[in-house]
């Protein structure tokens, strides 16, 4: 019984809320995605893996997973072809860019 | 679990609690607001985990550990004060757990516990424990600033619990990963 409680407590500890911190690669990817979203470009997992010359597709794929885990992007399945996943921004990503926008506006005042 | 195992659990909890208490005095004595009231009180995290996981036997360990450290560090020669403060240290988390069972939907086996509900429970533990301690200090004539000391003690208990919880989180998510 105590061991079960311990496992439940450890599980809760793992889900403690934190501020999602990004590493430079994730930041680089998210900035590029934001530019693509702004230009209304269709962004799929496959196209994202091929859009960076300086980052390997495997690294991009790994960072897509971490960005998704941090709640900054979401994947939507294509209604026609279920193998295609579209990358979309989340409200948290929007908040992130809004905050950066505010900081930029304050800095330029 | 037989009687001997329960006593062993209480003794181990007492040793861990006393060790962390001494460590807190060593590391965070500069954050002390008044005697016995600190802005960071890490043992409260151990207290929370012990009472949530080990129930009454964890609380008994906290009582023993708290009496030991309290008598040595704060109430030398004053057994009554050391024993009452120790009892409050162990009993207040039990009361807080009862409160969380009744009002914060905490299940006895901790099933369905999430990170955010754990933070709410930690806050409830901190407030209830600090209020009970400070009520005793007022009765015993040790403090005149009930509200201020209660607030600082609650903040200290909560920050200490956060230190323990986020250190555990780091170990669980990063420490084990890097060990692999």
Helix proportion of chain A? 55-70%
> Within the largest sheet of chain A, what's the order of strands?
1-2
β-sheet strand percentage of chain A: 5-15%
| Protein structure class of chain B | mainly alpha
Shape of chain B: globular
Strand coverage percent of chain B:
under 5%
Stretches of chain B where pLDDT falls below 50 for ≥5 residues? none
Percent range of helical residues of chain B: over 70%
Largest sheet of chain B: 2 strands, antiparallel
Q: How does the major sheet of chain A shape up?
A: 2 strands, antiparallel
Termini separation of chain B comes to 34 Å
Query: What class, by secondary structure content of chain A?
Result: mainly alpha
Question: Can you walk through the features of this model?
Answer:
The complex is a heterodimer of chains A (109) and B (180). By secondary structure, chain A is mostly helical. Chain A has helices at residues 2-14, 24-38, 45-50, 57-69, 91-108; strands spanning 73-77, 85-89. Chain A is built from five helices and two strands. A two-stranded antiparallel ribbon of chain A has the order 1-2. The longest helix of chain A has 18 residues, at 91-108. The mean pLDDT of chain A is 87. Chain B is mostly helical. In chain B, 78% of the residues lie in helices and 3% in strands. The interface between A and B is medium-sized, with 16 and 24 residues.
Please describe the topology of this protein:
The complex is a heterodimer of chains A (109) and B (180).
Chain A: H1 2-14, H2 24-38, H3 45-50, H4 57-69, E1 73-77, E2 85-89, H5 91-108
Antiparallel strand pairs in A: 1-2
Helix pairs in contact in A: 2-4
Chain B: H1 3-28, E1 32-34, E2 37-38, H2 43-73, H3 79-103, H4 115-139, H5 146-179
Antiparallel strand pairs in B: 1-2
